[in-house]
Amino acid sequence: MSIRNLFGMGCIMKTKELTKQVRDKVVEKYEAGLGYKKISRALNISLSTIKSIIRKWKEYGTTANLPRGGRPPKLKSRTRRK
């Protein structure tokens, strides 16, 4: 059985997102003049992750989690607590 069959139509499952502190550290090292590869090796994070963090930081000016799309919840948080 191939990986394609295990995970659907060629989509590989994503991992957990990085903490804000780690993303801030990436931007801090980038502003200090380090390149993507050096940051990647220093923090042991993949090169593509470093690139996406820097790209989002340049575009939105923040390292906070961006809002995601999707259907809004049917129940309000207050109703769920009851």
TrEMBL record:
Source organism, top-level taxon: Eukaryota
Pfam family, one: HTH_SB
Domain Sleeping Beauty transposase HTH: residue ranges: 13-63
Residue ranges, compositional bias (Basic residues): 71-82
Annotated InterPro entries: Homeodomain-like_sf, HTH_SB, WH-like_DNA-bd_sf
UniProt region (Disordered), positions on chain: 63-82
Protein name in UniProt: Sleeping Beauty transposase HTH domain-containing protein
Species in which this protein is naturally found: Pleuronectes platessa
